[in-house]
Amino acid sequence: MTTRRTAAMTPTAPTKLAAPRPAPSTRPAAVSERQRRADKIAAILDEHVPAPAVPLDHGDPFQLLVAVILSAQCTDARVNMVTPALFAKAPDARAMAKLTAAEILPIIRTCGLAPGKAKALAAMSRILVDEHAGEVPADLEALERLPGVGHKTASVVLVQAFGKPAFPVDTHIHRLAGRWQLSRARTVEEVERDLKAVFPEDRWHLLHLQLIYFGRASCPAKGHVRASCPICSWAMSASRERAEQRQGVSKPVKTRPSPRAATRRR
Hints:
Helix content is 56%, strand content 0%. The chain has 14 helices and no strands. Helix 2 (61-70) runs antiparallel to helix 8 (151-161).
């Protein structure tokens, strides 16, 4: 009878799994470089725009909310020309709620998208009266439920009317974040997240306005000269500049053909 010898089982050390490598945009070195860039940018903004004023004229949170709604597809200067007559007729939510959209429209007609805005102002005011005792809620979700109010508008009201931490991202801020390599700037949500990560919360209200004023004065969407901008001259990549010049837009997109499109051309 043959005796079958069994090899002794030697305990083996548990296999150590390598930690997953973070995405390139979140690697410590990349984050550190982005942070250094943000700190330098903040210092330059303090020099060029030390005390920015809220650009929309208003007397209280309701009037600011109305002005921000009107500012969509419209300049702040135009809004400030329109709101005095509107607020003389309806200075608060209760007065505005008594107006119909047809009554509001002639007053705001020179603002872009006026018919839709007139309907939104009338409906928004009625909701404020019915659900919030005529007051503007200092709550992001409650604001975003109002007609005509999106995330950016709600964020502007929170930070400028109530002093709550928020970082509204408009077209100027979106453009600058991409140009200055503070964000890949693929979406507004991505820009907001990236800017909040590199700037301290107690500076968001100031930086939001500094970026807007700086973008208008020194870093415009069209006719921009990289070398003449005190930030783009060192923060904007040459490839980004070439892409903007080639495509004629301030937020260039990659134009690589899809494999299917390439196949069709063969």
